[in-house]
Amino acid sequence: MQYRNLGNAGMKVSAVSLGGWINYGESKVEEETAKKVVERAYELGINFFDLADVYGRGKAEIQMGEVLKQYARHTLVISTKVYWPMSEDINDRGLSRKHIFESIEKSLERLQTSYIDIYFCHRPDPLTPMRETVKAMSDLVDQGLVHYWGTSEWSGAQIEEAWAIADRYGWNLPQTEQPQYSLVHREFVETNVTPVTGKRGVGLVPWSPLGGGLLTGKYDAGVPSGSRFERETWAKDRYLSKKNIDRVKKTKSIADKLDVTRAALALAWCLANPNVSSVITGATKVSQIEENVKASELVLKDDVKTKLDEIFSYD
């Protein structure tokens, strides 16, 4: 396993990480199977496990925490997130100081830990002043409840504003951004986000680096029965198109020449971006995490990266 600094922070994260959204948050995997996936991930050197309070309305944190508690805490990098509504209560949502402080207490209890390594603002909150959110997140770091804080699905302008406020007042700076980023969803990150994060040392930890599974080649011949795209129309609508299928098919010959899966190829492409600290993967079976981990050691030559960039050029 390759390990990288989280942006310009001293903490290192595994280049390939495991998210709890599919395993636990969506309840699509038997609990015993999901447990085996997490345990195998740890055996293979994954130290970064990503969650959110909203995944299963706390269920993902509870179940992942139960598995991870068997390992020495200092060997783990655990992240979770705050923003989405957790109940019908008017204040049980957003990025107000009240919601942030109440949410971290609940997440810590569910995860059975005394601190969170990375705490993400899951989305920007237009209803809360940015200064209030930044101060609250910085205070959590000062209190030792959080080691680093970051953002998820924020625009470059929003990240720049948060970073500038923290810098102006000497508060703890946002250290990481978790965007959607893959060969089939790249333009926004590359043109809007990284021009801001790159020069500030904010590390990217992309989610859905396999385009919802599209980049594995699983959907080359259509949508299989019982597959994610059959269950989730939003994912199908976001990624599945004739153009994208044709693009993904073209990567098979590239992957075959390298003797790797198309999944490993797509992950390695993400990791070739110097702004990326780790790619957050999902896995519903042990074999998937075993294949994904191989991407951490796959170094793509310039001609391969150029070919992939040409195939998946901006529309």
Folded structure, characterized:
The protein has 13 helices and ten strands. It is α/β, with parallel strands linked by helices. It has a single domain, classed as NADP-dependent oxidoreductase domain (TIM Barrel), CATH 3.20.20.100. α4 (97-111) links the parallel β5 (77-82) and β6. α3 packs across α4 (97-111), α5 (130-142) packs across α6 and α6 packs parallel to α7 (187-200).
Strand content: 5-15%
Q: Which stretches are poorly predicted, pLDDT < 50 over at least 5 residues?
A: none
The CATH architecture name reads Alpha-Beta Barrel
Q: Describe the sheet with the most strands.
A: 8 strands, parallel
Fraction in helix? 40-55%
Structural class: alpha/beta
Q: List SSEs in N-to-C order.
A: EEEHHEHEHEHEHEHEHHHHEHH
Helical segment tally?
Answer: 13
Instruction: Average the pLDDT over all residues and give the rounded result.
Output: 93
CA distance, first residue to last residue: 34 Å
CATH level-3 fold name? TIM Barrel
Taking strands numbered 1, 2, ... along the chain, how are they ordered across the largest sheet?
9-8-7-6-5-4-3-10
Number of strands: 10
